[in-house]
Structures are given as C-alpha cells and as structure tokens.
Amino acid sequence: MPRPPQTDQKRKELLPVVAEAFGELGYRRATTAELAQRCGVQENILYRLWPDKKAMFIAAIEYVYEQAAQTWRELLSENANGSDTAMKLLNYEADHYGEAELHRIIFAGLSETDEPQIREAMRTMYKRFHQFIRTQVTSHRQSEQKGLPPDETVSAWAIVGLANMANIGRELELFSSRGRRKMFADVGRLLLDGRHE
After folding, report:
1. How far apart, in whole angstroms, are the C-alpha atoms of residue 99 and residue 167?
2. Domain range summary for the chain, segments of one domain joined by +
3. The model's pTM
4. Do 39 and 49 contact (CB within 8 A), yes or no?
5. Which of 2, 12, 29, 48 could crosslink 6 through cysteines, CB 3.0-4.6 Å?
6. Per-residue pLDDT reduced to its tens digit, 38-72
7. CATH code of the domain made up of 4-193
8. From the CA atom positions of the chain, what is the Rg in Å?
C-alpha cells in the first residue's frame, strides 16, 4: 500500500478524471469499473484511494468548489491595483461559467440528497461558495460606500442562484452566451450595489 503522501498525490492526479466522469454520467450511471477505465487504472487502485463510489463522488463535489475558488483566487491575485474584484469575478463568470461542465456534478448531487453524506457535501459546497461571494460583495460595498438592501448575505445567495440559473440556461439552451453575459452583468450589478441604477 502506498505511503500517505503518494496516496494523496495519486488522488489529486485522478480526481479531475473522476469528476469529469461523474459530470458526464451522473452518480448512478458512473460505475467504478467505468471510473477506473477512464483513469487508466484497475478498480482496486480507486478503492485504495477512496473507500467507495460515494466517497469518490463526494470528492468530486469538493473538487467543483476547489476549481472555482482556485480560478477566482488567481483572478484576485492579478487584481493588485484594487479595482472592483466583485465585478471582475462576475465579468469572468459571464464569459466562462460552465465551460468545464463541472456544474453537472452539482446537478447529479442534487438528485442524491436523500443520501446524508452527499447531502452534507452539497450543503458544505454551497456554503463555501456563499462565503467566498459574500466576502466579495462586502468588499465591493465598502469600497463603493454602498450598504443598501438587500444585505450581503442575501445578495451572495442570490448570486449563487444566478450562477445556478446560468448553468440551467446553458444546459437547456434557454439563452445565448450574449444573454448569459447580460444576465450576469445586469443582475450581478443590481445584487452587488443593492439597488437599481
């Protein structure tokens, strides 16, 4: 059995492939045999890394947040001049949201919330998204000297909802990429500023 650091490294190496498979197939259709085949390993290797398929799926849910947060942190680190980080993130997401198709893992997770561990993983993921966004909303309002309703907590949840709607719109082709950008810009600005312009 590999030493823990090797195990961690192998998990990190295979997780993007596992997440992509869950995103494409969903939780129920993704067998461990299929996951192993896509990873280019035997099933027993996956079971050395995760105790079962549910643990693999929960790791994929966590991966959704980590990938978004890593991208956002990189964008924020490029923003050393102090310009509006919240709008920068909204503008970025308007152009790129859903490209990696990781939102399909979220959709699959929502259909599995009767399983307590998956439900808790989904709750944790959404709370982490909310906290990250709330921090940006608060920072935006302080820099813009705006503290109008709705409060930062409500606005952050509404932005999470906006992102979910963008994913649904992408999947069902409800609006164009131009329409998605406009939605992020218009609704996002309203939620950040807490008022109509």
Report:
1. 10
2. 4-193
3. 0.88
4. no
5. 2
6. 999 999 999 999 999 999 999 999 999 999 999 99
7. 1.10.357.10
8. 19
